[in-house]
Specification:
With about 180 residues, this protein is of the alpha/beta class. Helix content is about 30%, strand content about 20%. Helix 1 crosses helix 3.
Length: about 180
């Protein structure tokens, strides 16, 4: 992995002997992937009282707001292409900037793409900088996809009001509460 902030790291383990691999050196990405994700998922906790639909929605909104705040304050890894532009993917009419919470998550993504053996240069950026500066600079509807390839841990930060600046939000000018009432 290579951090464009000045820390260049070779992605291989430095073992020059071919050994059992037939001349191919093992990528350090495999070591990162093996380090993470060994813990079993936490068991769900039962609520003491049944929640109403409104309570459940309010609770999920609060949980997402906390998660968003944590993301905005965190430094994340943003892999870059050969032109130093953030690596992106398009899905559902939205361009998604890929970001990762650590090198293990980036390694799992690389392996899932079948590209675990190559070097993955990246930039380390604050989540707030991604949402407030990078997303609007893209020029098309754009959000951030955090930890893609890490089963059960990925999070999408879509281009909507409250997550990205209003001029980059696809729902700018829409009364969300009124729209929710119409839906249901």
């Amino acid at each position: 992995m290579s951090d464009r902030g000045g820390n260049d790291n070779d992605m291989t383990d430095g073992d020059e002997s071919a050994g059992e691999t037939g001349g191919i050196r093992r990528s350090r990405l495999l070591d990162y992937a093996e380090m993470g994700g060994a813990e079993p998922p936490a068991a769900p906790v039962a609520a003491s009282e049944p929640l109403t639909s409104d309570d459940a929605v309010a609770r999920r909104r609060h949980e997402f707001a906390v998660l968003l705040g944590e993301f905005r304050r965190a430094a994340v890894l943003v892999p870059t292409d050969e032109d130093d532009a953030p690596l992106v993917g398009d899905f559902g009419g939205i361009r998604w900037i890929y970001a990762f919470s650590n090198e293990s998550a980036l390694a799992r993504f690389a392996i899932a793409r079948g590209e675990g053996g190559r070097e993955w240069p990246y930039q380390r950026l604050l989540g707030a900088r991604l949402l407030d500066a990078a997303v609007p600079a893209v020029g098309v509807p754009c959000g951030v996809a955090l930890d893609v390839g890490t089963e059960g841990e990925g999070v999408l930060f879509p281009p909507v009001t409250g997550i990205v600046p209003e001029d980059a939000a696809v729902d700018a000018g829409v009364d969300v509460d009124a729209a929710m009432e119409v839906r249901g």
